[in-house]
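In this section we walk through a basic example: taking a raw amino acid sequence and producing a predicted 3D structure, encoded as discrete structure tokens. The instruction is simple. Fold the sequence below.
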Amino acid sequence: MMVLSVLRPDASLIEFLESRARAAPVRRLVIQAIAALGLVTVAFSTLPYARSVVGTLAGVFFCYSVWGLLDRARSKSASRGWKRTTRSLEILCGLVVGLGVLSGLGSILAIWFVALGSAWVL
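The resulting token sequence is shown next.
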């Protein structure tokens, strides 16, 4: 029996990102997390004026890929009946989502600072 994997037309951005992260292969999520860490290190070491923009956007992508990996581990532990592990992974997923939201807000602020020509560097 086939199951439709298409989202409904009025799906929110959060539902879209959840389904995309859950459908992504583990290898791609790991590569994405490593690439985001590489971008953060390059941004903070060599890009003096764009470090806030690149660093915060890379933080968002890192949190997205780590959340996908943690969510996959959480669902496997839930199917095996490991309640404590599942609960701790749920808390960790929430922390990573919170960090991703903060990075997203930081990227918006960084883009505004660059666009307005502020001398203040994050």
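Looking at the output, two observations stand out. Residues 23-114 form one domain. Residues 29 and 69 are 7 Å apart (CA to CA). In the next section we compare this with other chains.
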